[in-house]
Amino acid sequence: MIINKLVKSGLKTNYKEMPDSKYKTGLVLSGGGARGFAHLGVLQALNEAGIFPEIVSGTSAGALAGVLYCDGHPPKEILRIMKLHSKLDYMRPTLPRDGLLQISGVAKLLESNLTAKKFEDLKIPLFVAATDLNNARAVYFSKGELITPIIASSSIPVLFKPVIINKIHYVDGGVMDNFPIKPIENKTSFLIGSFVNPVGYEETTSGLITIAVRIFMLNQAKEAEEKSKLFDLLIAPEGLTRYGILETESADALYEMGYKKTREKLQDPIVKKIIEEKLS
């Protein structure tokens, strides 16, 4: 079973083993900063096609989109909520000891809009990937207090301070697992992946924050290709490379890219056949 593979590989889990294919449809949401707005477009197109994920796993931006969706917020409503906040609401400069920016604005956004206080309160089961810095491993949160693991999963190293949970320092889940398929692999009949972290040509490579972000993204670049064969449907909009991961002002354009790419994929005859076979 998958949990045994995770234990042998040294990856920590905090969920109980479940029977294979317990859920009909699962969704994995990658990290990608502001590009995570594309996840909302993906969800909107899936829902319009009658496809509603029954279990979700996410890292960083994927965890943020995932928790609001699993709490019962429709994709367009999540977009509206997140657009109410400027870049400075999400991150503010701080004294550069453990991180250059504060991420407290994300906590306020979640506190203001989440009905659930614990993972167990969510309408849809959710796994959130974070990186345990002390033990150098990925951790998948799925029970207990909700907001702190989301913040930990979103704390890009150097940019943001690590989050301490039970004396362990956690940072962005993307350091160890930016496309967290492991918690729900083999647990669904139909598995969908939304990958919003493509790496292409970057004209500007100067400035501490730009360099830190670029290195972080490059470190994750191979994940979509390596994991693509594990999904029944993989959505990875190519044009996302035009947008920086801190470019929150481009929310509408990013949302639209995710929406259009998903609609395009769902019209593919091969994908239609897979959906018919898996979800019939």
Overview of the molecule:
The chain has eleven helices and eleven strands. The strands form two sheets. Strands 1, 2, 3, 6, 7, 8, 9, 10 and 11 form a nine-stranded mixed beta sheet that branches. Strands 4-5 form a two-stranded antiparallel ribbon. By secondary structure, the protein is an alpha/beta fold. Helix 2 links the parallel strand 2 (23-29) and strand 3.
Number of strands: 11
Overall average pLDDT? 83
Report, as a whole number of angstroms, the end-to-end distance: 25 Å
Q: Considering DSSP H and I runs of 4 or more, what fraction of the residues is helical? A: 25-40%
List keywords for this structure.
11 strands; two-stranded antiparallel sheet; 36% helix; 280 residues
Topology:
Layout: H1 2-8, E1 12-13, E2 23-29, H2 37-48, E3 55-59, H3 61-70, H4 75-83, H5 87-90, E4 92-93, E5 101-102, H6 104-113, E6 126-132, E7 137-141, H7 147-153, E8 163-165, E9 168-172, E10 188-194, H8 208-218, H9 223-227, E11 233-235, H10 251-266, H11 269-279
Parallel strand pairs: 1-7, 2-3, 2-10, 3-6, 10-11
Antiparallel strand pairs: 4-5, 6-7, 6-9, 8-9
Helix pairs in contact: 2-4, 2-10
Brief sketch in words of this structure:
The chain is of the alpha/beta class and 280 residues long. It is 36% helix and 17% strand. α2 (37-48) packs antiparallel against α4 (75-83) and α2 (37-48) packs parallel to α10.
